[in-house]
Amino acid sequence: MSDATGRNDEPVRGRSVRFRLLAIALLPMLVILPLLLGVAIYRWNAKFDATLISKVNGDLTIAHQYLARILEKTGVQIRSLGLSARFHEVVAEDARGPLQELLEETRKEIGLDFLYLTNGRGDILASSPQLHGIPRADWPIIQSALSGQVPATGVDIFANDELAAISPTLAERARLDLVPTPNAVPTERSTETRGMVVHAASRAMLPDGGAAAIVGGTLLNQNLEFIDTINDLVYRAASLPEGSQGTATLFLEDVRISTNVRLFEGRRALGTRVSAAVRAAVLDEGRTWLDSAFVVNDWYISAYEPLVDSFGKRVGMLYVGFLEKPFSEAKYQTLLIIILAFITITVATVPIFLRWATSIFMPLERVTATIGEVERGNLAARTKMPVSGDEIGRVAVHLDSLLDQIQERDRQLREWNEELNVRVRERTRELEHANLKLEATTKQLIMSEKLAAIGEITAGVAHEINNPIAVMQGNLDVIRSVFGADADKAKVEFRLLDEQIHRISQIVTKLLQFARPEEYAGYVERHAPASVISDCLPLVQHLLNKTEISVVRDDRASRLVLMNRNELQQVLVNLIVNAIHAMSDGGTLTLRSFDTEREGNPGVAIEVADTGIGMDTEVIEKIFDPFYTTKRRQGTGLGLSISQTLIKRQGGQITAESRVGSGSTFTVWLPEAS
Asked: What value, to the nearest 5°, has the Cα angle with vertex 211 and ends 205 and 217?
């Protein structure tokens, strides 16, 4: 019965192994290879499109250079006329006829539509052809030429009446009927009457020494020679694949005024308009368009760049592009060939993989099932396969042998691991306990030894110093009585001696106060924190004068504190001096007092804050310890310890907050005087 159960279970487990083997066999062909092909095709398509964009960008560069060359050449030719000896001879004769003939001859020679000479007042001295009005004189190009900038060239937009003032023929040539165009910005206009002109001017000197300008231009509206030359330069024969064609266009704003794009066979798309998307990107935003675009009636790989007139305003566009359809068809054909080749190879090779996989399914199912049992924690599971000569059979037998060894070693390792963990935990607890006791004992011994030594030394020093002080003070009084009235002659000296003797006495008292604080509590009284702070500032004024430290006061405390005034002053002076020392390069000393509570008890907080070098966490933890100091040569390490002792004796506390580089804040909290 058990054998039957095993036979029923094996197919269920075997399907999992079969699935994985099939996946191993087919994954490279059906998953990885398609993914790699997809990535490769995606990259190829992106590179293909980037190549097309790069080409059309290069085409636009050629067209731009040609237009720039036309502008430069026009400016140079007009400047050459102004510098020629013949021009100066004709101008010197002050005869209108010869000057008119020279301008006519030059205009035809260099291929301009108009050429005239004007002075700084806007008067026309001569022109070709004969002008029918007074041309506009405030063009930046003309003003630049009159001011001496040579040559001054650009593309300018002439209104129809401005063209008519030069020549009615130019005004008529500029007129174009607008053709309704899909995707263009809606407009109510039906015609375009303005003209885009290659505009150039050069400075010339008149016989009377006045400045004049030679002004010339070429109308680009319906100038098919200009646009066909660009197209021939950019798209020479065989530069595009069969079926594609290159086009070039000049736009006045969004209207095609010169183009070789065909509206239909035999008619150019003059008067059609660019799409709204291209207009927004190029004319409104001033960007160069390098992308696919719908041009009149088909999709083109297109490049548009804005044209700027002499006023600095975007007035038109220069376009080149080529038909996209042949390139798209070539891409699709290539993709179809790759897909068909992949399908063919897959259909031919998958059956072979399946036959090879079948021969190893059954033995591996048994091995897989055994490994699964072991993974679930059953180290007693075995394949129990008979010895055979093939590789899989030998692997199964070897697997059983290895599982026997693993089971035994696992048992031993578990025993050793448990024993080791127990020992480690015991030793760790012992070491941690011993270290804590040793650290605490060491700190207590050091502190006890220091305090005991200081107490003993202080008492002895105080006794030894107080006796001489008493003798000195007594003899000083005797001297005063001996001298009598004559003692006033040395009144200042006697006063200084009294002060210094008193100072020595105070120092001794402070030492005793540290060693035996309970014996020197002093007389306590109620004080307003603001008045105590005010009394402290004169005591440290000499230190403030040595540095660039500004003092900020913020006295908001309304409660009184109960403490000996001298002791409170001693604490605050010590904190202020420490703050000044921390700001050797200057800063701000802030003194605040305000009402606050601590653990439900009303009180007053006095803050001493500086903007000095600050302290790290390790220093803050030690600053109230006796003899700890960061002033290597100046400090004794007793100031903050004594201050903390004095404040705690009154039921208060001193706390510190600091960050390195951001300054420190010491807060003295005292309970409210009852």
From this structure: 85
What residue type is assigned to position 115 of the chain? L
Burial (Cβ within 10 Å: 0-12, 13-18, ≥19) of residue 449: exposed
- DSSP-derived letter for residue 594 is E
What letters, b where the CB count within 10 A reaches 16 and e where it falls short, cover 99-126? bbebbbebbeebebbbbbbbbeeeeebb
What SS3 class is residue 238?
Answer: coil
| Nearest CA-CA partner of 658 in 578, 586, 552, 571 | 578
**Secondary structure (DSSP) of 441-463:** HHHHHHHHHHHHHHHHHHHHHHH
Whole-number Å distance between alpha carbons of 67 and 199: 12
Query: Which residue in the block uniquely carries the two structure tokens 């696992």?
Result: 410
Single-letter amino acid, residue 79: R
Contact 641, 626 (CB under 8 A): yes
372-400 per-position pLDDT tens digit: 777 777 777 777 776 665 666 677 777 77
Average predicted confidence (pLDDT) for the chain: 83
Separation between Cα atoms, residue 389 and residue 340, nearest integer Å: 43
User: Rounded to whole angstroms, how far apart are CA atoms 108 and 110?
Assistant: 6
Q: Tally Cβ neighbours within 10 Å of residue 228.
A: 14
User: What DSSP element (H or E) covers 655?
Assistant: strand 653-659
**Rounded CA separation 349/251 (Å):** 59
Contact 572, 533 (CB under 8 A): yes
Q: Three-state SS across 410-437?
A: HHHHHHHHHHHHHHHHHHHHHHHHHHHH
Please enumerate in sequence order all residues whose Cβ is within 8 A of that of 395, keeping only pairs 6 or more positions apart, or say none. 367
* Span 475-493, pLDDT tens digits: 888 888 888 777 777 888 8
Using CB atoms within 10 Å of the CB of residue 606, give its burial: 0 to 12 exposed, 13 to 18 middle, 19+ buried: buried
CB 171 within 8 A of CB 242: no
Looking at the DSSP assignment, which residues form a beta bridge with residue 115? 128, 216
Q: Please list, residue by residue across 302-331, b when 16 or more beta carbons sit within 10 angstroms of its beta carbon and e when fewer do.
A: bbbbbbebbeeeebbbbbbbbbbeebeeee
Q: pLDDT per residue over 74-113, tens digit each? A: 989 999 988 888 888 888 877 678 888 899 999 999 999 9
Pairwise CA distance, residues 48 & 333, whole Å: 14
Q: How many CA atoms lie within 13 A of 251 on its CB side?
A: 25
Alpha-carbon span 610 to 612, nearest angstrom:
6
**Looking at the predicted structure, is the pLDDT value of residue 667 above 90?**
yes
pLDDT of residue 409: 84
| Max CA pair span of the chain | 139
- What phi and psi, each to the nearest 5 degrees, are found at residue 218? -130, 125
Question: Do 195 and 209 meet the contact criterion of CB atoms below 8 Å apart?
Answer: no
Q: Which pLDDT score, from 0 to 100, does residue 8 have? A: 44
Measured CA to CA, the distance from residue 376 to residue 89 in angstroms comes to 111
* pLDDT of the residue at 6: 42
- The CA-based angle 370-372-375, given to 5 degrees, is 115
| Alpha carbon distance 296, 459 (integer Å) | 109
How far, in Å, CA of 40 to CA of 43, rounded? 5
pLDDT at residue 12, as a whole number? 44
Within 13 Å of residue 422, how many CA atoms lie on the same side as its CB? Answer: 5
- CA 645, CA 623: separation in Å to the nearest integer? 13
